Amino acid sequence: MRNLLFSAVFAAASLFGAAAHADDIQAGKQYTELSSPVPVSEPGKIEVVELFWYGCPHCYAFEPTLNAWSKKLPDDVAFKRVPAMFGGIWNVHGQLFVTLEAMGVEAKVHDAVFAAIHKEHKKLATPEEMADFLATQGVDRDKFLSTYNSFAVKGQVEKDKKLAMAYQITGVPTMVVNGKYRFDLGSSGGPDETLKVADFLIQKERAAK
Fold first, then answer.
1. Domain ranges in the chain?
2. Dihedral of CA 112/115/116/120: which sign?
3. Where is the Thioredoxin domain (predicted)?
4. Reduced to 3 states, what is the DSSP secondary structure of residue 167?
5. CA nearest neighbour of 158 among 89, 113, 80, 98
6. CA-to-CA distance for 209 and 207, rounded, in angstroms?
7. How many CB atoms lie under 10 A from the CB of residue 70?
8. Which residues pair with 68 in a beta bridge?
9. Helix runs in the chain, H state only
10. Residue 56: which of 20, 94, 13 has the closest Cα?
11. 30-206: which CATH topology?
């Protein structure tokens, strides 16, 4: 199931998916307009969300391109990551991400977590295994475990699950602009083309203000 969820997103790209050029980016082609817009977390800004899973190889491969792009976004754009949770290890890794955000260390160790799973072949399937690894990255082990099991983190996990459902995602990585437009690497034609679609939709929302 998990292979289907993240590989389906890449199907169109691997089969010569249409490149995302500004003059032919269209709803129903490179992106889908949601029938029911989802409220954004920072009203007044144009929100860009990436839904991902730490165990997804395509998300891992997308990271360098996405990171470089997100660092250059203007002040009126808010970028955020949301973990996709389809059950099992997806939920475990999703709670890991939420915990790191709650502790304020996500930016510091996000890349290291990805590398641990995809380069070092660590499963990070239990809180204890996560805590042991994160301790090597300077994160307090006991604080991580207490935060991971906290009411606040579990509450945020449930909110993120509902958010992914509202976006009606079927795989990762998937992006959503301003709670209105959903697209992925398959529909866009590849990593670089996906960010061209994001830029197009950001401008679309900016012009509509």
1. 30-206
2. negative
3. 7-203
4. helix
5. 98
6. 6
7. 16
8. none
9. 2-7, 11-14, 57-70, 89-103, 106-118, 127-135, 141-148, 151-167, 185-188, 191-208
10. 94
11. Glutaredoxin (3.40.30)
